[in-house]
Amino acid sequence: MTNILSVRNLSKTYQSGHGSLAVLRDINFDVEEGSTTAIVGPSGSGKTTLLGLCAGLDRASGGSIVLNQQNLNELNEDERSLLRNQYVGFIFQNFQLLPTLTALENVMVPLELQQASNVKKRAMDLLEKVGLSERASHYPMQLSGGEQQRVSLARAFSNAPKILFADEPTGNLDAETGARVEKLLFDLNQEAGTTLILVTHDLELASKTQRIIHMKGGKLLENEG
Ligand SMILES: Nc1ncnc2c1ncn2[C@@H]1O[C@H](COP(=O)(O)OP(=O)(O)O)[C@@H](O)[C@H]1O
Ligand SMILES: [Mg+2]
Predict the structure, then answer these.
(1) Per its record, what are the GO molecular function terms (predicted)?
(2) Number of domains the chain contains
(3) 23 CA distance to ligand 2 centroid (A)?
């Protein structure tokens, strides 16, 4: 099997006025293409930081990440955003929708960056998939947390990513909407072969993935390689 992600001796340190804070220390793991993985651990253990580094959103302090056969250390800012736009989907813990754009326009952004055709229709189809056709012209602040979560999902799906990172994708949702989001994620894995890496507090959700990685204090507890 091919690894779509390889993390070696990864570390991340934040500098502050009082010195440096080591948030991730010596992280090592591989993820097979097409697999599903959950990352679990206490709040503050570094899950969001790890996800962001793996997706190329931020730079590591040490070690290496190879994503889709490309070493992120060797890419500049532009090359990393191209890689993200082509292969990576990311669902943020706090959605990060653009407040001045409608739901539809938010989903259109990655497609427009790709200079895709039929952008509007494709974005509408994605909104329909997450059950939000009627909300297409609403702005993020006019939507509930769960609805924003689903717009964020539609946006993350829009470039048909090879790998999807989801940071607590059901964290803000009621049980019914959570189940719906969960189904969308696993369907994408089953139907399109999208590799799924999700951070969650929900152990029931985690148990549905093929593998669980436990984090504590910036380290992996179970280093399965
Ligand atoms: N930009 C930042 N600057 C300084 N410290 C940060 C920054 N982002 C996160 N941290 C710190 O890193 C630690 C891990 O945060 P995070 O990755 O968000 O953990 P988790 O997602 O597991 O709750 C926390 O102590 C947090 O305060
Ligand atoms: Mg987090």
Answers:
(1) ATP binding
(2) 1
(3) 12
